[in-house]
């Protein structure tokens, strides 16, 4: 709904070129809407700031929920010896997976600092000093020429996060098909058609990383391909760790079907 509403908003007064040249096109839209709604440019800006504050609160809530989910998954993997076992321990007093939580907090903080340090890279033409007027960038972390050539780290982190989400939901749909194949409550629509639709939809979203830069005018090739490279390296590391860990602990990588059937009987 937001996507179509934002596209519908574009008009002769605020064109796609205006939005592309702006550092915060949604903020511009909020100012315009607020000005029209309340009859004052100052009220329009206040309306935008209120909207921005709600987005900030939503980001905090989403981040906390993601950290909680990640900590629970890491804790479960620690208990199953899929990651180092100390992640599967609970705090002696609070009974929380504190090691998983602190690990994810530190990783998130490092990624966040690296992201916001250079997130305008590649999106603002040199000289960048003329377009940035805040204290953070006044330190001159990068010179203008270097800054303009760097990829947008905010886009990269967003794409990496989304790729993981697409992959997770795609695998979830596959599991739904397999798990209900011989179940007594099997339903063709719920357990075949709907999961296949979800599988294809997520797969198309993932394929867009490859073909998007060649189909969308102005879309950079750097961000999606860097995101894919990071996901590939992380996936490769996970696979190598899993295989080596399984070999060390003498655990089977693949479950023997006959053994499972024997346990079922």
Architecture overview:
The chain has helices spanning 2-9, 16-21, 25-38, 41-79, 98-118, 144-149, 153-179, 188-215, 222-248, 257-264. The chain is an all-alpha fold. The protein has 10 helices and no strands. The chain starts with a helix and ends with a helix.
Which secondary structure elements does this structure contain, and how are they paired or packed?
Layout: H1 2-9, H2 16-21, H3 25-38, H4 41-79, H5 98-118, H6 144-149, H7 153-179, H8 188-215, H9 222-248, H10 257-264
Helix pairs in contact: 3-4, 4-5, 7-8, 7-9
Amount of helix? 55-70%
What structural class is derived from the secondary structure elements? mainly alpha
- The stretches of 5 or more residues where confidence is low (pLDDT under 50) are none
- What string gives the helices and strands in order? HHHHHHHHHH
Sheet of most strands: none
* Strand residue percentage: under 5%
Number of helices: 10
Q: Which whole number gives the mean pLDDT?
A: 84
Measured on Cα atoms, how large is the radius of gyration?
24 Å
Q: How many E-type strands?
A: 0
Question: Which term fits the overall shape?
Answer: globular
Distance between the termini: 51 Å
